[in-house]
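To whoever is covering the structure queue this week,

Two jobs came back overnight. Logging them here so there's a record in the thread.

Job A:
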Amino acid sequence: EMLRSLVGSEMCIRDSDYILNYVKQNLEDDVIMYGAGAGLHFVAEIKNSYLTQSELISAFEQKGIRIFSTEPFWIRKNLCPENQLLFGFSAIPYEKLPGAMKTFSKIIHSL
């Protein structure tokens, strides 16, 4: 059980590192990722976006990427930034990360 947890956490770190490096190399002017090392999610801030969270989520879903609103985590919902979304990566197999991040990038550049 302990070994499985260690292997799982190493995979999580590997996936997290891949995503952060991809964003740094390809999307540095467009996206800020918060929460590095915090687990299986990041908060992705889409720079220079004037779309609502619903519009952003819809744009990602149309291309097969599920991304989530951060609004449920805000006590004062009216203060929730529209350009920040919850980006989970635990369900994406490592071998599919390059394609998923390429799609993520295309969506960002189409906004």
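Job B:
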Amino acid sequence: IVHGEIDSNDFSQMKTNFTACHSIDLSDADCAIIPESALQDKKVLTSIVLPDNCIEIKDWAFAGCNSLKCELSLPGGLKTIGYSVFNGANLYGELVLPAKLETKKPSTTP
């Protein structure tokens, strides 16, 4: 579980240094924007919980995470979801887009 404020540098550290980390829980993190390519190609990642205060997920944030095999709940306040965010992920169940979503780029879901 990640606590407190996180930014693109923290995501870079998670992507590079958490080589055996299969699950990341950001539910307690202060992270309004998940940066572009945040955890792209993190092959060992099997599950992720997004922060409740997230309003934007940038392009390719979780693309290529082909071991990501979970049901994913998108934050209710999410306004923008980028291009190919989950391309290559093996999400199961429904991916419900929040009512407040303003921008959805093509190829958002696998």
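Note for Job B: The chain has one helix and eight strands.

Please reply-all if you pick these up so we don't duplicate work.
Q.
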